[in-house]
Amino acid sequence: MTISPASASRRDFLKVSGALGLAAGLAATLAACGGSQKPTGTGTGADPSKINKDGTITAGISYELGTTGYDPMITSAALTIAANWHTLEGLTELHPATREVYAALGAELPKKVDDTTYEVALRKDAKFSDGSAVTADDVVFSFTRVLDPANKSLYSQFLPFIDKVEAKDAGTVTIKLKYAFSLVAERLSVVKIVPKAVVEADAKKFDMNPVGSGPYKMTDNGAASQKLVFERNDKYNGPRPALAKSMTWQVLPDDTTRTNAMTSGSVQAIDAVPASNLKTLKDPVKVAAQQGFGLLFAMFNNTTFSNVKARQAVLYALDYAKICDTSMAGLATPATCFVQEGHPAYKKAKVVYSMDAAKAKSLLAEAGVTTINLLCTDHGWFSAVRPVIRENLEALGVTVKYDEKKSADTYSFIESADGAKAWDVVIAPGDPSVFGDDADLLMRWWYGGDVWTDARMHWKGSEGQKAIQALLDEAVKLEGDKQIAKWQEAFDKISEDVPLYPLFHRKAPTAYNSSTLENFKPISLTGLSFVGTGSSKS
After folding, report:
1. What percent of the chain has pLDDT over 70?
2. Regarding beta strands 92-94 and 285-300, do their DSSP bridges make them parallel or antiparallel, or are they unpaired?
3. How far apart are CA 189 and CA 107, in angstroms?
4. What contacts 171, CB < 8 A, 6 or more positions away?
């Protein structure tokens, strides 16, 4: 999935999937208290005796490189996000596997001065990979460029609570809030700190070859080689140091090629293990399927499908048991709410969709729909789902005009003048939980910004959109149970209006070599994380 709204070309990518909010309550408590997390040892739990300090990590990645770069202000493609986990830092970070919030570039988690003021002291002697010192000016610059409406950064919608960020001194920043907000520590992680001088000197060069303060530095962006190459950042002095000398990620979108690379030993880990291979991979290869928020959604064109009955009809038409149990080999659970069961804010939604062909036919007839223009992205992991959805809709007696495109092409098409009315339903994967797990952030990704609501769904300005935005704006100023209750009101409203709605939440299957990777943690997000992972392979 994707979104990068700086320009039409920047908005072509939406390939992000999966995550489970495991530590939201703890993180909120830490943020509210202004507490700190002191790393012990390497901060990884890895056994140093099993790690080759000059070791290498090799991986096969299922998602293709998009045409966007790596600039953390704009990129949201799955592959670039995963790369940035290793090369860039925010003041705080959410661990991709555990979802714990920890102080990254900040020496401690944000210190609460009063209800609307926080301070963050930077990690002493922190440096970017080019050797330049990280300063408060770099932090202010990084936040300012994200928050500036002229830059059209999608990440700005995750920070509605921030009034301004200022340098208190060379090593400390002050964060002024518009109102009290309980999730400051988690939410600051969406802004990665970049070197002001480097970006201002050549923003395009930085976009393709980012300079950060993370444990690794990128030496090959994959544009020509289809391999991303990283080396240990010797300037890094933070809590999650690189435990390998280098990493190479092969871009392997083909399922067979990627699986063969795993079984042959040419890579040590792959994401998106095909369902047919889940039981065929043998020791020392391990397979883990982590439940997360990651979902497959139906998005509706509110220009051509403005009648809510038509949108609901599509959702009532689908055979969720066949989709989840057969086509997804049990790696998916039908959605009963916007968030997955087990999420801290979960409550069964007011409307839960299950297969009811008679009801679907009746609703389509009431809406006057006789033809459905169905557009699907071509992601391999839900290839067996697409024909089921098509068959289910055709069984209603309507004409289904089917098309299938690459993810980037899908979004560029529907945002174009020619494509704006040439589709009714898009089926695609997505998951903003790579940025955070709280319900507010997850909903704002799709229902809060103009790219999705205006350029894609054409839902902006509708009564439903206004109502959900109002609920989000109310909830963000609340805390605890009152906040969760307001989010649940929004879940109910979304289940009724369904401008975009999950069909299922999935488990993300990962395969890895347990004999050569030390402290590798499979994640429920799209992609792979080697934060805190070592290797015995040279």
Report:
1. 91
2. unpaired
3. 14
4. 121, 122, 124, 135, 136
